[in-house]
Design brief:
flat; DksA_N; mainly alpha; about 150 residues; single chain; binds zinc ion; Four Helix Bundle (Hemerythrin (Met), subunit A); DksA_RNA_pol-bd
Length: about 150
């Protein structure tokens, strides 16, 4: 089972695209760039959905196969681990869908907090990023301070 779907580096390969090559003077998040990221996000979402579906089927197939309580306990543990992973993936799918909507609305690629361009390279590493690197760093520092 592929485990690389949460790792951004695999996303470009997954979508079958290379890093975006900007032309001189090209508009940030014009049509070609939006199409590039739409392709990446679509491929990522499809992959995650397939994984979620596969696990559900897998669990339904196996759930009835362990009459022994010890086996069953071990399996329940395995299932709960898988369910947590699937839960993360479902949340990620929601985030991807939200990001796709931003592309539809022509509002993709800008920092949610300060409004500046997030940047192509950062978005290729993390297509669902909604903060620029400065705001992201700042919010992480704040989170750490609040956590004590
Ligand atoms: Zn910002």
């Amino acid at each position: 089972m592929p485990t690389s779907t949460n790792k951004p580096l695999g996303i470009l390969a997954l979508a079958g695209v290379g890093p975006y090559q900007e032309k001189a003077g090209e508009e940030y998040m014009g049509e070609p760039q939006l199409a590039h990221f739409k392709k990446i996000l679509d491929a990522w979402r499809i992959q995650l959905r397939e994984e979620v579906d596969r696990t559900v089927t897998h669990m339904q197939d196996e759930a009835a196969n362990f009459p022994d309580p010890v086996d069953r306990a071990a399996q329940e543990e395995e299932f709960s681990l898988e369910l947590r992973t699937r839960d993360r993936e479902r949340k990620l799918i929601k985030k991807i869908e939200k990001t796709l909507q931003l592309i539809e609305d022509d509002d993709f690629g800008f920092c949610n907090s300060c409004g500046i361009e997030i940047g192509i390279r950062r978005l290729e590493a993390r297509p669902t990023a909604d903060l620029c690197i400065e705001c992201k760093t700042l919010s992480e520092i704040k989170e750490r301070q609040m956590a004590g």
